Amino acid sequence: KKEIRVLQVLPSSDFNATVHATLHILSFDDSNPIAYNALSYCWLQDKSDRQVSELEAKQPTILLDGITKDVSNNLEAALRYIRKESEEVRLWANAVCINQDDDKEKSWQIQMMGDIYRGAELVIVWLGRESEDSDLAMD
Question: Taking the model in full, what pTM does it have?
């Protein structure tokens, strides 16, 4: 089956609160698929040129279906900024939505990435948190 997992990021009015999410299965074979956004981001982040914030000082985690899951600093930051105060956000993020411990699944899902991004209502590109000179690049 052409299926993917999609994160349902739960709302929070507290930016610093742990990100809570649940996983749901979405079928591309369904004639009435669930709308979702896709996240494109860098898995790794170079922190050598900036001071580590309090949020980045510890191993970042999210609460996924009630279980604590380690994630990268960059993914955790993206989820915090994407999360809304009063409504859930459906989001595909490869590090969480693909079982990284299952090579067979990873291979299958990687082959579907074109479909995943094309099927998204919106593709969000996360470049990372603002830094001292990031305004220069945006200008």
Answer: 0.82
